[in-house]
C-alpha cells in the first residue's frame, strides 16, 4: 500500500476530497433516461424485453410465486438459514430501538400542537443478482421497514438464467418481504417509481446497485424518495502500536475485495505499524480468491497516512467520513465522542467490520463517498414520515393574531394577514 508521510494536512485533505468527487457518466445517463421513458410508456412489456436483452431470460410472469420462495427456502443449506435467522433477530432487536414516537404538547391555553409519526405505505427494495447477490442486504433493507410498519415491501432482483439466488429468496421470506419480481437494472427502478401492470408504485426505493441503478434512483428522486446514491465500499482504520498488523490488513482487504473502486485507508501514528500493514496486505493479497479485484482497489485507492498524533489521526478521519470506521487504538471506546463523520464505527481489536456486514444488528446500508458528513445509516426512521398538526381556540387566535399579521405584511403577503383577521370578527 502507498504510505504517505511528511505531507501537509491540507494536501492530504485535498486528496481525500478528490477521491470522493461525484461524476455522472453522460452515456449512462442517456441510456437510463431512455429506459425510464420506455417503462413508463410500455410497462410490463418493456420490462420483459429488457429481461431478454440484458439478462438473457424470457419470462411470462415477472412475479415470483410463493411456491418458488418456499422451494428455495427448503433447498438452502440449513447452516445458512440458521445464520440468516440469527442475523434477522439481531437486526430486529437493534432497529426496534429506533422507533420514532409521536408527540403532542399544550404550550399555552387553547393551543395544541404535535407531530404524528406514520409509516410509508409501500417500499421497493432493489437486490442485485448474479455473483453480487447478497441475502444479508435483503435483511438490512426489509426488517427496518417492517418494524416501521410499512404494509407493502416489494423486492425486485434481476432474473437469472439458472434461477434466482436461493439464499436471497430465503432471506426475503425470513425478513417478511411481501412480493418479489424478477426485474433488474434501471428498468426495475422505473417500474417501482411509476408502477406497471404487475408492479405497484412505491413511496421509497432502497438498496444498492450498479451505475445504471444508481443513476436511475437519482433520476426518479422526487417522484419517489430514495435511501441514498450508493458508491463503492470503503473502510477507514485508526490504529496505533497496540494494533495487530495482520488484523488491520485483513480488515482493509475485507472491503477492497468488494469492488475495484473500493477505498481502504489506514491512518496511524506508528511507522512500524504502517510498514508492517503494507507488507501484510501484499502477503494476504497473494492468497485471496478475489485478488484481482482487491489488488486494483488497493493500488488505486489504498493509502496509509502516517501522522504525528492521535488527534491529527481523528481530524483526518473525520475528513474522510468513511462508510466503515474501525478504531484499533488502546481504550478504543474512549474515542467515540471525537468521531463526527462515519457511517458505522467498530471499536476495538475484536469488532471486525464483517460483524456489522452480517450479524451484529446495526445496519450495513451506509453512506459512502464522504456523505457520512451529512447522512446516516439506513434505519427505521427512513421508512416513517412525520405529519404535524395544530389546533387553536378562538381566544388563542386573538392572542397571536397581531404578531402573525405584522409578519405576514412584512413579507408582503396580505392574504395571509386577512385570513387571520377574518376570524377576529
Count of runs of 4 or more consecutive helical residues: 15
In the CATH hierarchy, what is the class of the largest domain? Alpha Beta
Q: How much β-strand is present in the residues?
A: 15-25%
Large-scale geometry: globular
> Could you name the ranges where pLDDT drops below 50 across 5 or more consecutive residues?
none
- Rounded to an integer in angstroms, the radius of gyration calculated over CA atoms is 25 Å
The CATH superfamily name of the largest domain is Nitrogenase molybdenum iron protein domain
Provide the succession of SSEs. Answer: EHHHHEEEHEHEHEHEEHEHHEHEEHEHH
Distance between the termini: 77 Å
- Tally of extended strands? 14
Instruction: Please identify, by name, the CATH architecture of the largest domain.
Output: 3-Layer(aba) Sandwich
Describe the structure.
Helices cover 45% and strands 16% of the residues. With 425 residues, the chain is of the alpha/beta class. The strands form three sheets. The protein has a six-stranded parallel sheet with strand order 1-11-10-9-12-13, with helices on both faces. A five-stranded parallel sheet has the order 6-5-4-7-8, with helices on both faces. Strands 2-3-14 form a three-stranded antiparallel sheet. It starts with a strand and ends with a helix. The model has no long low-confidence stretch (mean pLDDT 95).
